[in-house]
Structure formats: C-alpha cells, structure tokens
Amino acid sequence: MPADTTFAANAKTLLDPYRLSLSQAQQQLRSAVGTQKIQQQLNQICSPNSRICRHRRIGDRVRINVIALYADAIEQTFSDPRLAGRPQMTPEVAQNTSRLLRQVAEVSRTAQSPIEIYDSRGAFIIRYRPDLGGFVKH
C-alpha cells in the first residue's frame, strides 16, 4: 500500500493495537501449551488409577490431595524429627513420598506456578513455591 494514502495513515494507527493483541494472543497460547504440559505431567504423578493421590486445577492453582498414609509421611518429612509419637514410615512409603515431592517440585518449577498438597479431607499440608525454590507450610 502506498505510504502517502489515507489507507496507509489508517493502517499506522491500527498497528500498535494489533501488535499488542498479537502479543497477548501469543502469551495466552504459551500459557495454554504450558497448562497442557503441566496436566500431562500431573497425570503421570497422580494418574487416574493412582491409589496415592489425585490432582485438580482450581483457577490458576494446582491442588494435589494425598491419602492419609502419604499425608502423614509428608508431614513427617517437614516436621521436627525429635517430636514424639511419630509412626514409623515403611521404606516403600518413604521412597514414594520422596519421589512424589521431587516430581511436584519439578512440575512447579517448570510451570513457574505453586502446587499445593492437601490430605484426603482437604486440610492443607504444604505448598511448593518455585519463586522461593522450595516447600513452605503457609
């Protein structure tokens, strides 16, 4: 289109809003692709047939619910080992808990989004915060 026409002048005024819209659409696409990848990774951690955990998205948050045995194991992992009355973890539960926590941290870092872990009754246990590089209890 010739530069000295009214069409060119009108096009110039529309260029910035179009660039902004394109940038927003690209960001939304990246977010959707990222969400899909996270969903696939979470399905590997807590598959639909898993006896240990279930996951779901609530808005932009990811929530994992674990069965009581693993909720207790996670609580033990992040509490003072000198506390009395702690049941002994089996090697299998300890190994599975460690693997679960590593996988949650990896997915959270990849997604740059916190992942929260709750017990089967819905009580909060812990959250991985990629911005802090670790698990927090608040």
Task: Give me a quick take on this structure.
With 138 residues, this protein is an alpha+beta fold. The chain has helices spanning 6-45, 68-77, 91-111, and strands at 53-58, 61-66, 115-119, 124-129, 134-136.
Describe this entry's structure for a reader.
With 138 residues, the protein is an alpha+beta fold. It has one domain (6-136). Helices cover 51% and strands 19% of the residues. It contains three helices and five strands; from the N terminus they run H-E-E-H-H-E-E-E. It has helices spanning 6-45, 68-77, 91-111, and strands at residues 53-58, 61-66, 115-119, 124-129, 134-136. Strands 1-2-3-4-5 form a five-stranded mixed sheet. Helix 1 runs antiparallel to helix 3 and helix 2 (68-77) packs across helix 3. The longest helix is centred in the N-terminal third of the chain and has 40 residues, at 6-45. The protein is elongated, with a radius of gyration of 23 Å. The protein starts with 5 loop residues before the first helix and ends with a strand. The mean pLDDT is 85.
List keywords for this structure.
alpha+beta, 5 strands, 51% helix
Largest sheet: 5 strands, mixed
Amino-to-carboxy terminus distance: 59 Å
Arithmetic mean of pLDDT:
85
Question: Structural class of the secondary elements?
Answer: alpha+beta
Q: Uncertain runs with pLDDT below 50, 5 residues or more? A: none
Radius of gyration: 23 Å
Order of helices and strands: HEEHHEEE
Q: Helicity level, as a percent range?
A: 40-55%
Strand order of the largest sheet: 1-2-3-4-5
Number of domains: 1
How many E-type strands?
Answer: 5
